[in-house]
Write a sequence for this structure.
């Protein structure tokens, strides 16, 4: 059984971690979770992103959800937001593509051009 | 939507868009009454009478940016419940919030599968750290035995302090906790 005690340990570890890094969020990943996004598999994309971030222990990446953005024909859509850089929007995402974006863009800093639908 | 868990995700997103700070979700399998019950309640901006009526109409959407003014989320969920000899109720008050209840005949041949509730819950919790979730899962068997799982992000956030929910170990923790809860009430059977 999971216990709150376990959470306290995670908290201690995380606090050490944050002290070392001295910064909070490096990259924000935003998944479009409107009705059409959900119907085309946005939840699986979200799941893949969370899974990769947990597996790779990327504690400086924040993954969140947002509503419809008027890109219905390209759903599921994922934004990668980084301070001082243009926001990259990936479209027609799948769980597999999302994993690739984590490995190449978020970890190695190389934009996956094949999946980009907008950049601003 | 292929299953109920995706409908629930859609409804949760509605609540978030309505600026809810707390979303309560209750899922109950009530075998004595042969019902599968879903209750989703939020403390968001709510709807006035006209909007409430329109929300159940497939040719309405609250999304201003939409060119085609069509919103299928609520009407489809309603249709799915009613198709299964069930009921659908939507109550709301401006400034107070919205409560939605969908009841399905549990063993109805046309009832959609429940689908992956864990992914719906975990994704929504991590994806909306500004919103609190109270989740109650209940299974009431024919002989009256009750299994229950209660989850509250408020408790978790209290323990975590300033550590974000999307911190890798925290995500894994929430995922596993939810999995345990789902097993405890035998939700895989639903």
């Amino acid at each position: 059984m999971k216990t709150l005690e376990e959470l306290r340990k995670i908290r201690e570890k995380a606090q050490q971690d944050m002290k070392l890094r001295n910064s909070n969020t490096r990259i924000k990943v935003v998944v479009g979770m409107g009705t059409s996004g959900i119907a085309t598999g946005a939840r699986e994309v979200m799941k893949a992103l969370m899974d990769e971030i947990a597996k790779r222990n990327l504690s400086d990446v924040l993954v969140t959800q947002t509503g419809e953005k008027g890109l219905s024909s390209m759903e599921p859509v994922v934004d990668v937001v980084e301070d001082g850089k243009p926001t990259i929007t990936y479209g027609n995402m799948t769980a597999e593509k999302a994993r690739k974006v984590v490995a190449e863009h978020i970890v190695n800093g190389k934009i996956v051009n094949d999946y980009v639908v907008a950049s601003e | 939507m292929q299953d109920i868990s995706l409908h629930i995700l859609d409804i949760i997103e509605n609540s978030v868009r309505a600026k809810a700070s707390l979303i309560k979700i209750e899922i109950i399998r009530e075998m004595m009454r042969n019902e599968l019950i879903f209750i989703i309640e939020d403390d968001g901006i709510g709807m006035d009478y006209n909007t409430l009526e329109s929300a159940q109409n497939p040719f309405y959407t609250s999304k201003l940016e939409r060119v085609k003014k069509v919103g299928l989320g609520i009407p489809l969920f309603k249709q799915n419940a009613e198709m299964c000899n069930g009921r659908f109720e939507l109550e709301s008050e401006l400034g107070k919030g919205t409560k939605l209840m969908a009841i399905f005949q549990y063993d109805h041949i046309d009832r959609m599968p429940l689908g992956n509730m864990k992914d719906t819950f975990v994704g929504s919790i991590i994806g909306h750290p500004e919103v609190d979730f109270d989740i109650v899962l209940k299974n009431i068997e024919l002989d009256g035995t009750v299994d229950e799982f209660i989850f509250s992000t408020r408790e978790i956030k209290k323990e975590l302090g300033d550590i974000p929910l999307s911190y890798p170990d925290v995500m894994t923790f929430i995922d596993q906790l939810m999995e345990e809860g789902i097993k405890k009430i035998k939700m895989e059977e639903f």
